[in-house]
Specification:
Layout lengths: L2 H13 L2 E7 L11 E7 L3 H13 L5 E3 L5 E3 L5 E4 L7 E3 L3 E5 L4 H9 L16 H7 L2 E2 L2 E2 L4 E7 L5 E5 L5 E2 L2 E2 L6 E8 L6 H11 L21 H7 L6 E2 L2 E3 L7 E3 L5 H19 L8 E3 L1
Parallel strand pairs: 2-5, 3-5, 4-18
Antiparallel strand pairs: 1-2, 6-7, 7-14, 8-9, 10-11, 10-14, 12-13, 15-16, 16-17
Amino acid sequence: MKKSSLKILDKISRKYALVKYNEEFANYSSLKASFFVYCIIEPKTINKLKKIIKLFYKNNIKFNFFTYGTNSYVTNPNLILINLKNLKLINKTRHKSICVSGNQRMSYLSSYYKKEGIDSFLGGTMIPGSIGAGIKINASIGELSINKYLKKIYVITEKGKKKCLKAKNIEMKYRNTSIKESNIIYKAIFKKHYSYNTIDEYLYLLDKRKNQPKGNSLGSVFLNTDSYKAWQLIDSCNLKGFSYKGFRISNIHSNFIINEGNGSALDFDRLIFIIKLIVLLKTNIKIKEEVIRLN
Ligand SMILES: Cc1cc2nc3c(=O)[nH]c(=O)nc-3n(C[C@H](O)[C@H](O)[C@H](O)COP(=O)(O)OP(=O)(O)OC[C@H]3O[C@@H](n4cnc5c(N)ncnc54)[C@H](O)[C@@H]3O)c2cc1C
């Protein structure tokens, strides 16, 4: 780490946030794959987060960020990470809308609002991660997207500035949006939408998920496309149940990789490479990761 970067990190720890050095990312991720990163910074307010981003931008310091680590892993020991999960949680109902902070869990919002007959968050039913990450990747359960009732988002840009983006100006695709990778979503406004079928639909979605593999994972590892389902390709290569250094391709759903022991994130990364290579050689199809390696 450069001396100048160390100075900035020191300033951050004195003025803006807790900085934890040599942190085990397994403790922050649902995969629990072992890997130590250079440091994890935990701001508690948006204004302090903004100041940290500004400092990094001005001093040209590379960093990345995450919230609940249910879709991400790391393989770079020099990584500086900001963890958004300790920012203040917001969940405010207004007349026609609901305002939530980016670190609210989608599964919580879906379950919480269904009791009032509000179906605005059903697209996040049982999805363990944050709504900020969910909005950015257009998370969905089946065809039902978490962004269905999104009105607008508030982000912090790579320069540390606050900005508001209207949903109608955001392009949404399967597991992808036009929101810049560097933008941190700290707040979102959703339309408050009622439906008579909310509870039934919620129960239906729960039921759909009941056979989902249990254990430490990041959910689906590879993206589907209109032409194929990743799990079918992996099955067709006889990889179902295959195990590599503590990571197993689930016997229940072969797009899930379960960490059965204390596997290292490097081995998880290698297994992804092995699967991609075998699928390519056997089917001539290049599958792509849904999970995110934070660089
Ligand atoms: C068992 C299981 C089941 C799952 N099922 C589904 C499913 O059905 N559908 C689905 O879509 N996903 C599913 N997921 C994946 C995951 O929960 C979602 O992608 C979720 O949105 C990730 O949230 P997170 O806070 O954990 O993101 P993290 O893993 O912390 O981060 C993932 C990415 O999002 C970015 N990010 C994090 N927070 C923010 C923010 N506030 N603003 C902007 N960017 C941010 C990070 O920089 C990173 O690039 C599943 C995961 C698991 C473990």
